[in-house]
C-alpha cells in the first residue's frame, strides 16, 4: 500500500506541476532516437525528405517526447518519477497505460515545457490478490511560442506486494 491514504491521494487530484523544462528537439537527437526505435522513415533524417512528405521541418518520431524523462529536462527540486509524491515504493510501482494526443507534429527546433496534472487516483483488487492503486497523469507540452504540441497521458500502478519475477 502507498504511504499515503487514498483520501490523501485524491486530494492531490487536479494539482499541476512544471515537470519538463527546455526539452530542445535537435536534429542529431531525432536521428539517433529514430535509429534506436528502428524507425527508418527518411523524414526523421532529412529536411528534403520531410518536405516531400508534407512536413514543414524534420519531424521527431511519435514517442520522442519520452526523452523528457531524462534528468537534464527536469526542473530544480523535481520529485521523480512523475513530479508528485504518491508514496508508491519503487519495488511496488509499475508503468501502466501510455498514450499521446498530438495537436501537430513535434519538429526539430521546437523547445518544449511540460506541465503535469494528476488527473485521477483510484483502487481496485488485482487478479492475483491484493489492492492496486492507480494514478493517472497528463503532461501537456507547449512549444517556444506557448502553443500546445501534445498531451501525454500515463498511468502509474502501485501493487500491494513487491513485484517478483515468476520462474
Helix proportion of residues, in percent?
10-25%
Largest beta-sheet characterization: 5 strands, antiparallel
Output the strand order for the largest sheet.
1-3-4-5-2
Our Rg estimate from Cα atoms comes to: 18 Å
Unreliable stretches (pLDDT < 50, length at least 5) are none
Predict the CATH topology of the domain at 6-26 and 64-158: Thiol Ester Dehydrase, Chain A
CATH superfamily of the domain at 6-26 and 64-158: Hotdog Thioesterase
The share of residues in extended strands comes to: 25-35%
End-to-end gap: 25 Å
CATH class of the domain at 6-26 and 64-158: Alpha Beta
> How many E strands?
5
InterPro entries: FAS1-like_DH_region (IPR039569), HadA-like (IPR016709), HotDog_dom_sf (IPR029069)
Organism: Halobium palmae
Domain FAS1-like dehydratase: 13-150
Pfam family, one: FAS1_DH_region
Walk me through the structure:
With 167 residues, the chain is an alpha+beta fold. It has a domain at 6-26 and 64-158: Thiol Ester Dehydrase, Chain A, CATH 3.10.129.10. Helices cover 14% and strands 34% of the residues. β4 (131-142) and β5 (148-158) form a beta hairpin. The longest helix is centred in the N-terminal third of the chain and has 10 residues, at 27-36. The protein is elongated.
Amino acid at each position: 500500500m502507498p504511504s499515503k491514504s487514498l483520501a490523501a491521494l485524491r486530494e492531490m487530484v487536479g494539482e499541476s506541476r512544471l515537470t519538463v523544462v527546455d526539452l530542445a528537439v535537435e536534429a542529431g537527437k531525432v536521428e539517433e532516437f529514430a535509429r534506436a526505435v528502428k524507425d527508418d522513415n527518411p523524414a526523421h533524417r532529412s529536411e528534403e525528405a520531410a518536405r516531400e512528405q508534407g512536413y514543414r521541418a524534420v519531424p521527431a518520431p511519435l514517442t520522442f517526447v519520452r526523452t523528457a524523462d531524462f534528468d537534464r529536462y527536469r526542473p530544480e527540486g523535481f520529485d521523480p518519477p512523475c513530479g508528485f509524491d504518491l508514496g508508491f515504493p519503487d519495488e511496488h510501482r509499475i508503468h501502466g497505460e501510455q498514450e499521446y494526443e498530438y495537436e501537430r507534429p513535434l519538429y526539430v527546433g521546437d523547445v518544449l515545457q511540460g506541465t503535469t496534472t494528476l488527473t485521477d487516483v483510484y483502487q481496485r483488487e488485482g487478479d492475483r490478490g491484493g489492492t492496486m492503486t492507480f494514478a493517472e497523469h497528463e503532461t501537456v507540452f507547449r512549444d517556444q511560442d506557448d502553443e500546445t504540441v501534445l498531451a501525454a497521458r500515463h498511468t502509474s500502478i502501485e501493487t500491494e506486494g513487491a513485484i517478483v519475477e515468476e520462474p
